[in-house]
Amino acid sequence: MKYIITKDNQSISRFSLGCMNLPLGNTKEINDILRLALEFGVNFFDTADLYQYGRNEATVGPLLHDYMKHFDIKIGTKVGNEFDSALREKIRWNPSGDYINRAAIDSKLRLGIPSIDLYQLHGGTIEDNIDETIATFEELKRRGIIKSYGISSIRKNVIDYYKENSNIATLMTDLSILKTQGEEFLDENIVTLARGGLMQGLLSNKHENVLEKKFKKGTYGYTYDELKQMLMMLTDYNHSLESIAFKYLDYMNVVTLNGVSSAKQLEQNIGHYLDAESISNDEIKEIRGNIKTLYYENHRE
């Protein structure tokens, strides 16, 4: 496994696990997923307080705790969506200092860890009191509640503000070999955590079914026919679509954040990730050259 070091000297595995879709009702299956990930060399696990309204944190943290004596484990979580855990519903977007302070303590307790390795703002708008949010993250860091902070966003104006006015160590954003908008945000001083690399299964051996079920109306930057044409182009190469997708992310020097719901799915994705090593940089550059560069049109100023 290769690792990437953040500006806060945190080592993050280049292939990491997104926990949002873990089968929370099946503790054995989750344990199998976590164990397989750790044995492969995964050391970063991403969750959020909003996932299942706190239940995801409360499940993942204690299960990972059993492995912490034997593995270097980093846990990241996210904040900003105020919710009612009893009613299991979101109340509002709330990036205020008071709320983030309370939420950080709640997340730390649910996770059962002395300090949150990476705390990310779970969205954000340019209308927020961003300076207050930044000051709160910095204070949490000084107090040792968190070790590092970042944001999860696809809004250029928000991302630019944080880059220029804060010490964010990470940016989580959408990025895949077909959905290339996130390339614009890449920064050598900030570690990019790429979500959506397989595009909900579109970049997989099930791409024909996924195209019909999820992308009949196309997606941002592509019509249905354009997506079909791109998939035909990619399948002409002698590699699985998953391996091409993973190689692209590795070539872009980002962390691949892979979300799974079963150990079998993770095992398959690990296989494709390893197979991606057989794809040369020249070949992935050629493939990328056949794909258009996209930009988000909104939230730029």
Automatic annotation (TrEMBL):
Gene that encodes the chain: yhdN
GO molecular function, one term: oxidoreductase activity
Domain of life: Bacteria
Domain NADP-dependent oxidoreductase: 17-288
Identification of the protein by name: Aldo-keto reductase YhdN
Keywords assigned by UniProt, alphabetized: Oxidoreductase
Organism of this sequence: Phocicoccus schoeneichii
Taxonomy of the source species: Bacteria, Bacillati, Bacillota, Bacilli, Bacillales
Cited PANTHER family: D-THREO-ALDOSE 1-DEHYDROGENASE, NADP-DEPENDENT OXIDOREDUCTASE DOMAIN-CONTAINING PROTEIN
Keyword set includes Oxidoreductase: yes
EC number: 1.1.1.-
